[in-house]
Amino acid sequence: MNAPSPPTVRLSVRDLRSRFGGPFTFDVAAGECVAIQGPSGAGKSVLLRMLADLDPHDGTALLDGRPAAAMPAPAWRGAVVYQAAEPAWWEDTARAHFAPADMDAVAAALDALGLAGALLDTPVDRLSTGERQRLALVRSLARGPRVLLLDEPTAALDPAGVARAEALLAAHLAQGLALLVVTHSDEQARRLAHRILRLEHGRLTGA
Amino acid sequence: MNAIHLDAWDLGAAALLIVLDAGLSLRLRLGVHRQILGAAVRMVVQLTIVGLVLRQVFASASPAATLAVIVFMVGAAAREVATRPRQRLERWMNYRISAAVVACAGFATVLLALTTAVRPTPWYEPRYAIPLMGIVLGSVLNAASLALDGILDGVVRERARIEARLALGTPLREAIAPLVRSATRRGMIPVANQMSAAGIITLPGIMTGQLLAGMDPIEAVKYQILLMFLLAGASGLASCGAALLAVRALSDERQRLRTDRLRG
Fold first, then answer.
1. Which of A163, B148, B164, B169 has the most CB atoms around it within 10 Å of its CB?
2. What is the distance in angstroms between the Cα of B257 and the nearest Cα belonging to chain A?
3. Residues 142..161 of A with a Cβ closer than 8 Å to B: which?
4. A69 min Cα distance to partner chain B (Å)
5. H or E element that contains A192
6. Which residues span the domain enclosing B176?
């Protein structure tokens, strides 16, 4: 991991809160991975959704020093991409979810994850849960985010699939991506994250 | 016009059919006899009251009385539209959207007809304005409630898909466009069906009424064509209006999908 020195703060979270959780205050540097762990219902998804500005909230999040409110919401969400635990698909095939210009990067990501290119043209509802989950990761990365918010991104994968997904994420971290990943797996948190935030009853209880 | 006068005995004979329905329900244990009898009584009372009120309003030819009747009709139609969807928006938004859509679509088409095609004197002549508004509101009610229900229900069903697109930086307008299109289409299908079936599968109500009242068939057909155009226009306005206002009520300045504003 070649963390830039001094680390540039990519995402600053200041007093972010809603009636479902918070207040949250922390920073994530470029190239840093922060794991978020805690029991079900602790507010992990609440935090990620607030960071993606998908739910109403108080407090601010800043991307490279620029507050979310100063950016149009779609521009913020295009840079701070959130991937739900069960990613949804709105077209018949995965391919229809990608811009033609991104197809080279998509092919490389599929290869890194060990997915056959033919899956792109298989009807989405005939794909396995694990295939859909990995394709969702490809879809999120294809957006070229500066911050990626992942909710249990490898829950449906076998150990080999998990290792490939983590390697792909590590490669993007090395290029300066800031990553927040909600995971139940302590091993994954240890392997991937530089820091672990623990969340209980909607509050951070320390690293 | 030489309408054949109906007396109480004529209606009584037809009422036997209601008794027949109730009998069938009892015999076959359909359990709808109370509903049928109740609805029949309600229908008779409602129509009698309407007849008495309209006779007064037509006789007085007063603009204030005409407006009062029309406002009452618009209010009743708006209430129907607002209460049909299973999902309710908070802060009475169902009612506010319905009232706005029903009033705009209804007045726009009826005023157009009164000032261009029909042109009675005075232009607000209740004998024309009230029935025109009534038939237009029937279509508006259908179109607006289908479109409103399509959005409110659809947004719950499609929430994960819409939010997945938002989360990738897609503007809300684009992420929700498929739902808006399908809801608006739902609202406009009945009037499209009505137009293509008119005359072959069904004799539309107005035309039937005018034929029974002794009008020349060609004159009756011309009226019916005019009305169909009005209904099509009103349905389009009502569907689009209901769908767009519902989407506005379900979003905010940060282009979020605010399903938290729905009470299922």
1. B148
2. 7
3. 143
4. 8
5. helix A186-192
6. 62-263
Q: Is there a single domain that holds both residue B47 and residue B69?
A: no
Contact map slice: A 53-82 vs B, CB within 8 A: 53-56, 73-79, 81-82
For the segment B127-153, what is each residue's pLDDT rounded down to a tens digit? 999 999 999 999 999 999 999 999 999
Q: At what angle do helices B93-112 and B63-83 cross, to 10 degrees?
A: 130
| The model's pTM | 0.89
Q: Which domains does chain A have, with CATH numbers?
A: 9-204 (3.40.50.300)
Which residues of chain B are under the pLDDT cut of 70? 1-2
Chain B CB within 8 Å of residue A85 CB: no
Q: Verify that B14 and B66 share a domain, yes or no.
A: no
Task: Please indicate if any CB of chain B lies within 8 Å of the CB of A7.
Answer: no
E-strand stretches of chain B = 88-89, 262-263
Q: Which of B9, B30, B60 is the last residue of a domain?
A: B60
* Record: contact A140-B168, CB cut-off 8 A: yes
Q: What backbone torsions phi and psi does residue A143 show, to the nearest 5 degrees?
A: -70, -15
Are B103 and B222 within one domain? yes
Distance of alpha carbon A16 from alpha carbon A49, whole angstroms: 11
Q: What is the domain count for chain B?
A: 2
Cβ A77–B168 below 8 Å, yes or no? yes
CA-based torsion, B41, B42, B45, B48: positive or negative? negative
- Share the mean pLDDT of chain A: 94
B156 interfaces chain A, CB cutoff of 8 Å: no
- Residue-level pLDDT at A6: 63
CB atoms within 10 A of CB A112: 18
A89 close to B (CB below 8 A): yes
Residue A14 in 3-state DSSP? strand
Same domain for B136 and B225? Answer: yes
Query: pLDDT confidence of A86, banded at 50, 70, 90?
Result: very high
The tens digit of pLDDT for each residue in B223-241 reads: 889 999 999 999 999 999 9
Q: Kindly provide the ipTM of the predicted complex, given to two decimals.
A: 0.94
- Tens of pLDDT, residue by residue over A21-79, are 989 999 999 999 999 999 999 999 999 999 999 999 999 999 999 999 999 999 999 99
Q: Is the pLDDT assigned to residue A5 strictly greater than 60?
A: no
| Distance between CA atoms of residues A135 and A169, nearest Å | 14
As a whole number, mean pLDDT of residues A121-135 equals 96
Asked if residue B23 and residue B120 are part of one domain, the reply reads no
